[in-house]
Amino acid sequence: MKPTKESFGRLAGGTEVHRWSLANGGTRLKVLSYGGIVQSLEIPDRHGRYTDVSLGLATIEEYVKSSPYLGALIGRYGNRIGKGEFTLDGTAYQLDVNDGENSLHGGSKGFDKRVWDVEPFVSGSDVGLVLRHTSADGEMGCPGTLKTEVTYTLTRHGDWRIDYAATTDKATVVNPTSHVYWNLAGASSGTVMDHELSIDASRFTPVDSGLIPTGELARVAGTPFDFRRSKPVGEDIRVAHQQMLYGKGFDHNWVLDKGITARAEQVATLRDPSSGRTLKIATTEPGVQFYSGNLLDGTLVAADGTVYRQGDAVCLETQHFPDSPNKPSFPSTVLRPGQTYRSTTVHSFSAR
After folding, report:
1. Fewer beta carbons within 10 angstroms: which end of the chain, N or C?
2. Which residues are catalytic?
């Protein structure tokens, strides 16, 4: 089925926002041109009953006013850069600071708050959208004119694939990701603490009180961060571990055992026992940020009137590591003229 579009309202300046709908292989997806936001993603349970498994909002006004990156494309740099500062090729850069003294998810007007150009496509048995945005040199303090293209594909198997590509005319740093909040029992169903999660990672990056990595790659063994074997999200979330206190739960980067790969490899599985729905994530990236919805505080309201509260969803953001521009030992996020940044993440769904 060819993707269709409809108006989703207008921004304060008059720019129209569109909502695109596409379906394939049993998965139904709705995407906004504003922020590349996944407003809804519907999949069936073990009995074939559909529900939306990603947290979303009803109007463009709500997304502009208060959304904590619900379903959004994130960039230029996903996650945090300490004090919003880094030096590249001897030049110091000051980024927009929007998270205490740090820069988070590209600053106060990152990719999530831009209107993207969207082009639908049908290719063989796949359907999808190509989203394009050009960031000016100096936007949010970042060097280089960055041209970004993100392709959302629904395959005939119902997989949701994201392919990122970016080029620059000046050396810069790039680390895009997707910030979907998952609740496989249904977006309005309440807590996900009984969801079962596994992450193929033997190490994680501990953080300081500002959630900036210390530079250490710590072992997960013997800590609440050990998800090498599947366990409920909430099993260790109240353990009085210093890292858990800093994050108010899980809000950390896991160092994937596979490292950077040419093809997307499976790294995490999330399952809801009640519905049987399972999400498997494969990626080319070396890290994944697992966030347990710690700051959802009841101020966001779903389209059906339900409020989103702490622990009502989790995020699994495939990425390079936070603060990599200031940590030479971390995998590099530098992109130079003549190079093309590429990354792929695939979300596969099933139910049993």
Report:
1. C
2. 179, 317
